[in-house]
Amino acid sequence: MAAAVVSATPSGHAFPTLRQPLWGVLLLLSCFLWRTPAANTNKPTRPNILLIMADDLGIGDLGCYGNRTLRTPNIDRLAEEGVMLTQHLAAAPLCTPSRAAFLTGRHAFRSGMDATDGYRALQWNAGSGGLPQNETTFARILQEQGYVTGIIGKWHQGVNCAHRDDLCHHPLRHGFDSFYGLPFTLVNDCHPARPPEVDAALRARLWLYTRAAVLAVLTLAACRAWGLAPVSWTLVTVAASLVLLFFGAWYCSFGFVRRWNCLVMRGPSVVEQPLDLNSAPVKMRREAVAFIERNKHGPFLLFLSLLHVHIPLVSTAAFSGKSQHGAYGDNVEEMDWLVGEVLNALEERGLKNTTFTYFTSDHGGHLEAQGEGGQLGGWNGVYRGGKGMGGWEGGIRVPGIFRWPGVLPAGRVISEPTSLMDILPTVAHLGGGQVPQDRVIDGRSLLPLLKGDTQHSDHEFLFHYCGHHLHAARWHEKDSGKLWKLHYTTPRFQPQGAGACYGLGVCPCSGDGVSHHKPPLLFELTGDPAEARPLSPTSEPRFHTVLDRVAQAVAEHQRTRTPVPPQFSPGNIAWKPWLQPCCGIFPFCSCQEDVNPKITVSDPQLS
User: Fold this and answer.
1) Over the stretch 500-543, which tens digit does the pLDDT of each residue have?
2) Contact present, 99 and 157 (Cβ < 8 Å)
3) DSSP 276-308
4) With contact defined as beta carbons under 8 Å apart, do 328 and 386 qualify?
5) Nearest CA to 220 among 241, 239, 240, 234?
6) Domain residue extents for the chain
7) Annotation marks residue 156 as catalytic
8) What's the longest Cα–Cα distance across the chain?
9) Rounded to two decimals, what is the model's pTM?
10) Which of 88, 107, 156, 308 is catalytic?
11) Could you give the angle at the alpha carbon of 340 between the alpha carbons of 375 and 84, nearest 5°?
12) Which residue in 64, 95, 190, 252 is the catalytic one?
């Protein structure tokens, strides 16, 4: 029989045979036991998930998307270390419906979270409309898989239904374990020195009614002095007019809207009312870093829903006046600082390689936002249109940046059509969950595309709505590589040819403010991303073929629509005092958090 031997592996490591002493075998087993946990730690099957969404950010405002005058080094670093999408699309061009689609992976009309006509976004914390409880968010899917889930920042999906504490639309009822931020959104009313934004027309009418009431009081007083009016008429009219005058003056001077719409909640409780704009960035940073620290052993899902860069564009002293583009540029650079602080928190805790990080915006820049310094909205690059415009690329094309070191290739750029609605199936896939099978899901998992396992998006057709009106549709013809875009309805810009609807807040979806196109406007986006050269049967031989194929897809898509309760009905939109979140004594709600609003930055150019 041959003597005992030591066999060698191709790498040169020697392993003892069974004829060697027992201690050698035990030593070998101990080495494997020590090595296994480290390997599992380095390659997790379920990553932490960080989703960052800006508000009203133009795709052209970031360095990685071509901007050369605004400083966004932290977001640019995400793109360098990950995958960047150049044709990432919002499902709606306005805040509430876009975010509803993002959270659920479904067009907003499927949950009643888009306008039939009239209001296109939630207007009050004390309205009864909001994301229905039977909708499934990506947070709920991951919560059921053992993830700790949190949202920090803007919600804008409703709060209560029937009474002040039912929280039927609150993040805690939609799969989030924790919430810190604004249940509503930022509006000009949050700044005492800015002009009104919420129901400005109603305020103008209220002032008219108040003045009429004062005139009536004076008239009755004169009539009473001449003995022409009963005492009861005078007393009732005076009392009613004084009440109307008091609340009218309070409401129209921003006290009402600012105090009741601009507030901060921690979980189910109001902790700051009204919102302190100057300290908001520090608080968002504090809460995000604290969430990461608490849950660093994972897995966690954090949705950081930024307040930047929505008007009224209040920046802290460290950033105010430091950019080349006024208040908007200052706000963009402050936003990038905040993103960098959160990314640093991951790295400091060794979580960079085990975290799937995503950055985007809810829709394009707000072209109609104007102030004393001129333009207050974002830059949408070469793309036409902006916020509120149902089909134009400038309103729906948004940044899409993904980073997961060691899994996603660094520096990759993808030009396939993708959607914010794709995040739910992507996140569900990452967390080991399943997308709901009892409803239409419009999103598709992006993981095969991001990892390079496939070269094409699963979306052959995408549909672009303004309220419940279909304004445009696109067809990615994979055989030819052509990207066709049809506009059925477009806004009429005011003034004509301006490219926006100045004086209207945002462009309308229907009525006299839009144009209907028969035949539809046709563009080929690969060669004309700015949608500047509409095609015709003369210039495009396949004109009618393309229109017919997209019309067939639209008809198939429309058959998936079913009636649902409208969340933006007048009854749901209206302010209701019994639903108003409040700390302190109603209606004079008031409380403040104690926080040091100082920001320290490392960039000497910004200090």
Assistant:
1) 999 888 999 999 999 999 999 999 999 999 999 999 999 999 99
2) yes
3) -GGGHHHHHHHHHHHHHHHTTTS-EEEEEE--T
4) no
5) 234
6) 47-192+263-459+567-589, 200-252
7) yes
8) 135
9) 0.87
10) 156
11) 75
12) 95
